[in-house]
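Deliverable D2.4 — example input (structure tokens):
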């Protein structure tokens, strides 16, 4: 895989990869997903970096003092957003980041990715 590449080229590719991954993370942070559960009683918004940005709770739920129901609704809304936000992050694939760089033997070098093709 690394025949004809010197260490500087390998390090350069690693730096390109790091920069591309940072850029993808920044892009994911700008994208948001939202969920509503319980007929709109609880609404949440999360970004692609899996950060919960907001929770909106219908005042009627609070008035009823149904703590357990409210907790269940919040958990359901957050979990729904987590699924959506994770899908945002998996939209690209490693080839987008690595280009023509052959990843097939990186796992043999101790990297946790790049298994055999």
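Example output (designed residues):
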């Amino acid at each position: 895989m690394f025949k004809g590449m010197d260490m500087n080229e390998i390090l350069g590719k690693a730096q390109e990869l790091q920069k591309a991954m940072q850029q993808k993370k920044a892009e994911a942070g700008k994208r948001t997903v939202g969920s509503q559960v319980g007929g709109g009683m609880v609404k949440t918004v999360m970004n692609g970096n899996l950060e919960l940005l907001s929770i909106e709770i219908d005042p009627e739920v609070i008035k009823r003092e149904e703590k357990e129901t409210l907790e269940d609704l919040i958990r359901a809304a957050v979990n729904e957003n987590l699924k959506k936000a994770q899908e945002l992050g998996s939209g690209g694939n490693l080839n987008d980041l690595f280009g023509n760089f052959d990843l097939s033997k990186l796992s043999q070098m101790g990297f946790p990715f790049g298994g055999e093709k």
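The radius of gyration is 21 Å.
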